[in-house]
Amino acid sequence: MTPDRWIVTFAGMGLVAFIIWFFWLKRSKGIHAAETSGGYQEAMILVKGGYTPDTIVVRAGRPVRLNFRREETASCSDKVIFPDFQKSADLPTGETVAVELMPKQPGEFGFSCPMGMFRGRLVVE
Amino acid sequence: MNMRTEAAIPDYPPGGLGGGPESLTLRIGGMTCAHCPPAIEKAVRAVKGVQATSVNLATQTAKVDYDPAQAKVPEILRAIRSVGYAAGTATMRIPIKNMHCASCATRVELALKMTPGVVAARASMAPNAVDIEYQPERTDFQRLRTSIESSGYRVAEPKVKPTDETLDPAEAANEQDYRSLMRRFWLAAVISLPVMAFSYPDLIPGLREWMPMGSGTRRVVWALLGVLSLPVLLWSGSQFFVGMWDALKHRAANMHTLISIGITAAFLYSVVAVAWPGIFPDMALAEVFWDVTDVVVALVVLGLALEIKAKGRTSQAIKKLIGLQAKTARVVRDGKEIDLPVEEVLVSDTVIVRPGEKIPVDGKVSAGSSAVDESMITGESMPVEKQTGDEVIGGTLNKTGSFRFTATKVGKDTALASIIRMVKDAQGSKAPIQRVVDTVSGYFVPSVMIVAILAAVAWYDFGPEPRLIYATVILVTTLIIACPCALGLATPTSLTVGIGKGAENGILIRSGDALQAAEKLDAIILDKTGTITRGEPALTDVVVTPGHEETVVLRLTASLERGSEHPLASAIVKGAGARKIELVDAEGFAAVPGHGVSGRIDGHDVLFGNAKLMRDRGVPADVLLPQWERLANEGKTPMYVAVDGQAAGLIAVADTVKPDSRAAIEILKGLGIEVVMLTGDNERTGRAIAREVGIDRALAEVLPDDKAHEVQKLQLEGKSVGMVGDGVNDAPALAQADVGFAIGTGTDVAIEASDVTLIRGSLMGVVTAIEISRATMRNVRQNLVGAFGYNALGIPVATGVLYPFIGLLLSPLIAAAAMAFSSVTVVTNANRLRFFQPRRTGT
Question: The complex's ipTM?
Fold first, then answer.
């Protein structure tokens, strides 16, 4: 192989390794939802190119209120779906929409936009 | 709705301007039981200054006597709300024109607070409006307007607008997006044409000579093309970069990522080729790909625009439902008819509806009668007769007469609002089949990036010359042809259309799970009463002995039964009414408990009841025995009639089969579904009904608790079981079944109790529900096969796997076109479901 081929091959492998690490291997630890005086575990989630934060840690057996605020107009993110809780909510741009859930058992429950491009996790401890 | 806001209750001077005690009547919402009034009374009495209070459950009102010097109206309202009830105030936002300063706001507030009936007012400059909480029975928009105008300010527009506002915010945003995308498309398209022409001068005779390979002219022209393409990349394609950046911040990748990398790679290669042609060993390598950038952006943007249009159509059903909501209502307040926005109608208001008008909220007819077209909610095309005491549903259309009704449910509690909420939720839910896609789509885009890099490297290392160009083209094509959107859209768009289609036909499918489960049903259990049959007895047969006339016997019996409270009696009276027989009053009416009734009509002694009554009174009735047995075997309840001590005939009453039950059961069997009937009735009645509707497997005398057990038994046979019941005593069986179909009629829709709710009481709804589920799931599969197949074929072809065999290499331009239209195809296919037509029986 000529040197330019070696360079291209190594650069390609390096990029592949970077993609695997960047998209799949590094996971966020998430944030703990704040407990309000009303007994809710509450968190604010910004919807813009994804969910920020995308991992919310809560305790089982207590109601959870996630306030979604969408600040973009991409049509994919106009809804958020919690398949395990059979819940969904429309997210009009610029409005804060609360989704209330009651996680009974510990576990990890995903939520996403209808097309699954935006993903988040609710970690119930 | 932005017209309504939850106004806070500020502190302000007591309701009255001094003087003696005042009395206040408030409407209370949310009272459901006898425990409610004491709780409210206790809370209100705790307010300092309240002297007496009484809460009436029937009229849903509270009367409060209070000393205005000590108690404030807002405090009383707050006390009621603190125990969980809605105090009957309404809120209204009135826009004001010339309120420019903080002191203006204060003046408006003050003027309103002095107005009787106003509980709270908060004016603010930001929306330039005042939010007013008020008691609708004491004031209205006109009076509030007068108060505002008397303080020197102008109301910007009247609140009551008879116009239909159909454009909802989401639709408006979509329309805006569409227009913006189309503008970007046109720019890219117009620029693409010259760029394409000058990018391939060797193919065009005149140009070839004018700008030969390696010439300075060619370099200058190509440089100009690059400058021309810049707006396409940076403006028409800007959303791809923004989308990629937003996603990268979340360590995610999406369609934008693929397109951005693809067009950037093509663009940068071209920049290098024009700026430093010397670095390429062969002049032929110094080619430009501006055309790729421009055409890819144009096609993908066009695809996105078309997708928005097509997606807008998928939710047409829900838009129709929302459009059904009436905007105004004519309500009687203080003896006067006034037009109010529908949000201000309160429970127990009297509402007037004229012919051709929409019924604004749910209620019970209190005077008048009419035919009402309920097809928009129930799917039933025949108008329904409404008389005093009948329930009417908000959003339905009054056809012939005028009537008044008492509002029973308003706002978000109405049947229509619940239906809209439920359909929206269901449309947003996922079917289990989607889980595969979910798993795939999380890995899809990064995988495509890896595949594209590996393919490009392979082409560079082992491909034919010019290697660099081939590698670049392969990288760009592979990135661009992959379409995660088609995959992501496949299931949700079909579900949205399918569930909406159900709602249009009076079938509320609660979730994607239910829709998918309904497709696979092998067996359906039908509860007899109220499902196959009407659930209320009706007159079926009149048999007479020689010498008696049918109409006479029926007239005598029905006249006698008019005095009876027995449920069978009303069936006979109704039956006589249907045959236009005039009834008279009976003399000496007497009921013989458990046996029958007797009395004197038109000078005849009439006796009506069972065989024992006849025996006790010495009436020889054996001659009617064969007829009695025949009727009983048909599942009817025959009873003897004796006139002047002689057996005159038999009158039979039965719970009759709904007109289309038989047809529906036949279709279900034709769909390959085993149909089983369950009933708590006796064996004979059960068998007779089963025979009549063509059911082979019928289980009689089943206790309500055992119904769930029967469902389980069928499930143990390995079947997927649907249960159809009226949703009240069948609840455990409905829950046990794989799909529970609740038959709800009118406003008593047991929406929360089942997987599928049939608003119309017909079994044909079950057929339609199953057919919709089958059609939708078929559509989902077509979409999934299309989307997976497209990517599974498109990506390898784009990497050039076919090149060694048949020399096929995709052009990035074709890849872009395929990508743009793959998702449009998926959405268009889902839209085909909109043409689904349910089967109709002849009835």
Answer: 0.73
